[in-house]
What does this fold into?
Amino acid sequence: MDAKLQPAVDALTGRLNVEPVEFRDQVSLLVQPDQIVSAAQILRDEFQFDMLTFLTAVDYWPELAPRFHIVYMLYSVPHNANLSLRVPLEGNAPHLPTLEGVYPNANWYEREVWDMFGVRFDGHSDLRRILMPADWQGHPLRKDYPLGYEEVQFTFNAEEIDLRKPYARE
Amino acid sequence: MGIEQKLGNLGISTLTLDQAVKWARTNSMWPMLFGLACCAIEMMSAQASNFDMSRFGMELMRASPRQSDLMIVAGRVSRKMAPVLRRLYDQMPDPKWVIAMGDCASCSGVFNNYALAQGVDEIVPVDVYVAGCPPRPEALIHGIITLHEKVRSRDQTGRSDHGKELAEREQQMITGARGA
It folds into this structure.
């Protein structure tokens, strides 16, 4: 582990219920959903992690049991160090507190995660869809979301498929 | 000095109204600026000096749908963009034509997914499809020439002989392929 990260990781493991994971020199901390705000607060105020580089989610369904991981990548400009926080979440109506109060730029990232994965952020000031149309049904980046399929026309079935195609009228 | 001297004074030349209308429609067809993705780069190139689409009277791209006759859909159309595209089409005055430029506009190309309209013909009626990913400027110009032919072959009732002929030929190809 990077020596610059060691004090921050030690402090968090001491004070909160977090578990450090290291993969190819990248350090992640598995955080409980109710502790994410205080973890970010400690990292920002005491260890100069002053920037939220990105916030995203991963859907591990059907391999892992808590299917969602919400991933926060924090960056410290004074120390030139990256630290990621991961919050595992169950799939049934997943929700966790918003990080907007600590890093204001989490606003749009959280809207994106809500739009694509259907994870609710409690206390978010403006939780609307950001990419998909406002009346869209479902959350497309979930692994169980249907892909949608356009039938490929060959000479033997071109007409048959042509009848079903939704052509526009003038 | 130029061709005027050689021709002399033509005076009055006569032609049918039908011919005059078709001549005017094809030689001054104003396309709408509608670049959606990488195909738009090729569309720009088709208008630039190397290919020079103004040879066919099409140099004037309008930024307003109310002043244009032709919509060149250059690129993939996302489902969020689809209502916008339809609205722009509805704002164009009749007669109006649509070219689906490239694979994405024609049939969504490699993007077989939820986010994109699977071919722009789901949203607006398309006259000419131009294949390619993206099509070269020559291909776009060929598509435009094909559209000009289509406009010229349409009689005053609006029935397209050219289109009918193409459909018949296609039908023959399909039945021929089945018989073989």
